[in-house]
Amino acid sequence: MRQAAPGYTLRPVQYRDLDAVISINRQCLPENYSRWFFEHLAATNPRTFLVVEHGGQVVGYVMCRMEHGFSYFKRGRIVKKLHIVSIAVLPEHRRKGLGHALMVEAMKEGRAEGAQEAFLEVRVSNTPAINLYKKLNYKIVSRISRYYADGEDAYLMAIPLDEEHAPYLAS
Ligand SMILES: CC(C)(COP(=O)(O)OP(=O)(O)OC[C@H]1O[C@@H](n2cnc3c(N)ncnc32)[C@H](O)[C@@H]1OP(=O)(O)O)[C@@H](O)C(=O)NCCC(=O)NCCS
After folding, report:
1. Number of other CB atoms surrounding residue 22 within 10 Å
2. What dotted CATH number matches 2-170?
């Protein structure tokens, strides 16, 4: 457990948080998942499913999945990758550094679990999120045509979890 910003605590998800997480997901994003999916990721990837709490209420989360696949940076190499599946912060709690803190902590935990890279998909129109990922030194590695159900394209953004690209993970 640690402070994400004054008055905000960052900690691993617990089963009792899932209703709040699902509610935040529905309020903030058009990409919604079944309750089973949230439960499954909390059970299988507990270290990289994190919440931010304020005054006893969950106000943000990040949910990830560890995967194996081709490296985005080292041609032909199979690596362990942290997939940032979903992240959201309630509107009234944004621009306080919570999204940044959730990302950094998930990436630290992912690296501790052996991930060499992290990646995510983001709507090409989602400037706040793209700026957050760019601030963390993620790079756009491809554009996925019509990735979302409404036909919008996604950027696939990724970063090697090493000292050179993510020096902030050392602190
Ligand atoms: C994306 C999101 C999680 C960011 O959360 P947040 O707590 O507001 O982010 P932070 O306060 O940590 O911001 C970190 C950086 O992100 C960028 N950023 C965040 N909000 C932004 C905005 N509205 N406009 C432009 N840049 C923005 C900035 O670079 C910011 O750094 P700065 O405050 O020093 O300028 C939040 O906007 C959100 O929940 N959006 C809806 C859900 C969503 O789109 N999730 C991502 C799906 S891929």
Report:
1. 18
2. 3.40.630.30
